Amino acid sequence: MPVKIKRSQKRLIALTITERAKPKFFRILKKFIKSEIIKAIESGRSPVNKGGTDPSGTSGKLRFEKYSDSYSDQLGRGKLKSKGKRPVNLTVSGKMLRSLKSRITKNSINLWFSNPIAKYHDRLGAGKKGVLRRMLPHDGEEFNAGIRKRIANALIKAIQLSKK
Amino acid sequence: MAIPITKKIKLDFSKVSRSDRSLAKEEVAEYIVDTILDRVSSQSSPVSKGKFKPSLSKDYKKIKTKQGGSSKPNLELTGDMLDSIDARFKGSTLSVGIHKDAGELNMLKAENHNKFTKRANKTSLPERKFIPKKGENFKREIMRDIKDIIDSYASED
Prior knowledge:
Structural class of chain B: alpha+beta
Number of strands of chain A: 2
Shape of chain B: elongated
Number of domains of chain A: 1
Number of strands of chain B: 3
Order of helices and strands of chain B: EHHHEEHHH
Largest interface: A-B, 34 and 33 residues
Strand content of chain B: 5-15%
Number of domains of chain B: 1
Radius of gyration of chain B: 17 Å
Strand content of chain A: 5-15%
Structural class of chain A: mainly alpha
Largest sheet of chain A: 2 strands, antiparallel
Helix content of chain A: 40-55%
Order of helices and strands of chain A: HHHEEHH
Oligomer: heterodimer
Distance between the termini of chain B: 50 Å
C-alpha cells in the first residue's frame, strides 16, 4: 500500500537531512549569497520579495523605483559624472554595495551593510519622497523567488555533498 | 499594430493541494520574471538556443550612454520595457512576457528584440531574445527550477 507523505512530514525529513548537511550548506551559501544580492541590486532588481512588504515609499515591484527627476538631472555631472540613469543600481562609487557583510551563526547567516548610506535606501527612505529601494529582507520578509530558488539549489548541492 | 509578446506554458499543478496552488503559482510567476531579468542583465538569453547579441553598435552605444544608459547590451534605456515584463496565470497556464496592458511601444520593442514576427525579422534591430516564441521554450535549467518549485508544494502519494 502506498504511503502518503504529507508536506509537514516531508519538511521534517528535509530538516533531518539538513542538520547533517548544515555546515556544507552554510559554506556554499556564504560563498554566493553576497554576490547574488549585489548582482540583483546592480541590475536594478530588489533582492527582497516584491521589493519589500512595507508599502510606504516602495513600488511593490521587483524592479527598483526610477530615480527622481531632480536626482536624474544631477547624473552625468560633477561627483556623479560616471553614473547613469539606468539601471537604477544604487551605485555611485560602489562603496555601499561593497560594505555588505555576512556572518554564519549556529543556525543562520546574518547579512548587513556596514555603510551608513544603506539605511536610507533600505529603511528610512531616500530623497525628498523617502523612496525605499530595499536591499535586504527584514523580519517576516523573504528574498525574491529567484534568489530563494538558488538558495534551495545550494541546499540540494550541500545534501548531495554530505552524502558522499 | 503591436501584438503582446508572451509565452504561454501549461504547467502541472495536479499534485498540489487546492489551498497551496495560488502560493505555488505566485512563486513560479515571481521566479520566472526574476530569472528573465537576471539573464538579460548578464547579457544572456533565458531562451533555449536563444541569441543575445553581446555588443552594442558604436553609434548606438554613444546614444545610449549619452542618455544615461549603460554601455552594455542590457535592453535598458528608459527601463519601461523591462518594467513591463509580467507573469500571470489563467488556470494552470502561465503567461509570461509583455502583455497588452504594457502599451504599444513596449510590445513593439519586445517584438523586434525577440524577432517574434516576420516583420520583426526585417528590422535592423539585433536579436536579443528574452521571450520564447511558439515552438521555443525557456532553457532547460529554468524549466527544471519551475518544476522543482511546483514539486516543493506537492503532497505526494
